[in-house]
Amino acid sequence: MNAKEILDEVAAQVTQCEKCQLRFSRKNAVPGEGPANSEIMFIGEGPGFYENEQGRPFVGQAGKFLDELLEMAGLKREQVFICNVVKCRPPGNRDPEPQELQACNGYLDRQIEAINPHVIVTLGRFSMAKFLPQARISSIHGNAMLVNGRMIVPMFHPAAALHQPSLKPQVIEDFKKLPEYLAQMKKDQKEIPVFEQKEETSSDHNDEPPAEQLSLF
Ligand code: URA
Ligand code: SF4
Questions:
Q1: pLDDT averaged over consecutive 10-residue blocks of the chain (217 residues)?
Q2: Fewer CB within 10 Å of terminal CB in the chain, N or C?
Q3: Closest listed residue to residue 76, CA positions, set 67, 84, 63
Q4: Domain tally for the chain?
Q5: Ligand 1 mean position to 186 CA, how many Å?
Q6: 120: closest CA among 206, 39, 32?
Q7: Global pTM?
């Protein structure tokens, strides 16, 4: 299957999913959307009221602000993949519960694997915690980290900046760093030499390096 086919399959499965209790309160599941070859992926928390109505991510107030932030970063919404850690709306917009995050995690993993983006932007603490469980958003927001070879950029959730306007300039400043991070990852990739793959034996997989986590900038 190619990336687009995998994303379509995940979306179809999410729409029918019965893996956690959020299935009872959803109107429409929100798998996420964007091109299969997106260079940047944005991961939020979970659908809110309007997302649940429409089955699309970030279409409410936070979504409008996200659109503005993308524009300030020189990005178009149509160019990026946008989704959430849980695909169905938590009732009353409560925080997702650990078992819900756990149940839904496989869909997100398949989306990340299919898209294989240069940069993953986490919006808010729940998506940050997937990659950086010990991190504090207040100290690392806007900083690029390499986690298992992927660039993760933790950002404040756009809704947080709407509730707390003093955060707004900081969020804008953080988003403006994205083109530079993207360029960095593209440049690094070009510099990685491509070797002819020899047939691997299964023992070749036993000495994988441990998870790496380092600050790049
Ligand atoms: N907030 C989120 O985290 N995700 C959405 O899709 C909308 C609002
Ligand atoms: Fe399934 Fe995720 Fe929706 Fe739970 S939140 S029902 S795991 S798609």
A1: 98 98 98 98 98 98 98 98 98 98 98 98 98 96 96 98 97 98 84 53 44 49
A2: N
A3: 67
A4: 1
A5: 28
A6: 39
A7: 0.89
